[in-house]
TrEMBL record:
Family annotation (CDD domains): TM_PBP2
Keyword Lipoprotein: no
Protein name (database record): Glutamate/aspartate transport system permease protein
Membrane topology (UniProt): Multi-pass membrane protein
Sample GO molecular function, one term: transmembrane transporter activity
Record-level GO cellular component terms: ATP-binding cassette (ABC) transporter complex
One Pfam family this sequence matches: BPD_transp_1
Entries under InterPro entries matching the protein: AA_ABC_transptr_permease_3TM, ArtM/GltK/GlnP/TcyL/YhdX-like, MetI-like, MetI-like_sf
TM ranges: 31-50, 71-88, 108-134, 155-177, 208-227
Similarity-based family: Belongs to the binding-protein-dependent transport system permease family. HisMQ subfamily.
SUPFAM superfamilies from the UniProt entry: MetI-like
Keywords: Cell membrane, Membrane, Transmembrane, Transmembrane helix, Transport
Subcellular location field: Cell inner membrane; Cell membrane
Length: 250
């Protein structure tokens, strides 16, 4: 097979007549980073709450939290994207559903919710595992000091647990960047979608995919360096962490 390589394609104008293909990829990267960052914040907040509830003495609360984890963790992310984008507007009142469909950034909001809930279930598992990994004496010590149960979690258990699970959380952060590419299926022009668009217009498949690959590698490398720095700064002597940012957990 004879293939005509053309690395100058990145500097040629795209069909919109405004930007080059490289600029188009960078715009896609902007959407990827924005989606990943916002979804990660949502996942971290909800995951911490749900993961904490999973370790509390109230059995009904634990069952509800476990049900949340099983629901969002076991349904494929692609299916969740479709459910949020196509099904949810039909389940709410017609006026609200019409408003949701007419939002200018409907695909971004949908991807944000789907990715946030999906990742929060995984974060919840890591948080509860980190709390369970602590010696039972940590909780008893908080009670002995006169702290309430919420105060014990806030000032004793969660700070220690997070320092233990940072490697696992960095794996989840790396995964959320990769999982953001699923958003192309509901019309969000993030990095992967921009790459496919470039390939379809130019027929330069290898150049397009190589450009996207290099960008993803750069992002992952920067995230890895930050993760290693955080691991070293927060490592607790005597505790064996449950993962490593450099090995991946998927």
């Amino acid at each position: 097979m004879h293939y005509n390589w053309n690395w100058n394609i990145f500097w040629q104008m795209s069909p919109d007549g405004v930007s080059t293909y490289m600029e188009t990829l960078l715009v896609g990267l902007k959407w990827t980073l924005a989606l990943s960052a916002l979804a990660w914040i949502m996942a971290l907040v909800i995951g911490t709450i749900v993961g904490t509830i999973r370790t509390m003495p109230n059995k009904w609360a634990v069952r509800i939290a476990n049900g949340y984890v099983e629901l969002f963790r076991n349904i494929p992310l692609l299916v969740q994207m479709f459910l949020w984008y196509y099904v949810m507007p039909e389940l709410v009142p017609a006026s609200l559903g019409g408003w949701l469909k007419s939002l200018p950034n409907a695909s971004f909001i949908t991807a944000f919710l789907a990715l946030g809930f999906f990742t929060s279930s995984r974060v919840a598992v890591q948080v509860s595992a980190g709390i369970h990994a602590l010696p039972r004496g940590q909780k008893l010590a908080g009670t002995a000091l006169g702290l309430t149960l919420p105060q014990t979690y806030r000032f004793v258990l969660l700070p220690m647990a997070f320092r233990i699970i940072i490697p696992a959380l960095t794996n989840e952060f790396a995964a959320i960047i990769k999982n953001s590419s699923v958003a192309l299926t509901i019309g969000l022009v993030e990095l992967t979608a921009a790459t496919y668009s470039m390939r379809e217009f130019t027929f330069q498949t290898f150049e397009s995919l190589t450009g996207a690959t290099v960008i993803y590698i750069i992002i992952s490398s920067l995230a890895l360096l930050l993760a290693r720095y955080l691991e070293k700064k927060t490592a607790i002597p005597g505790f064996i962490t449950s993962g490593s940012a450099s090995t991946g957990g998927h």
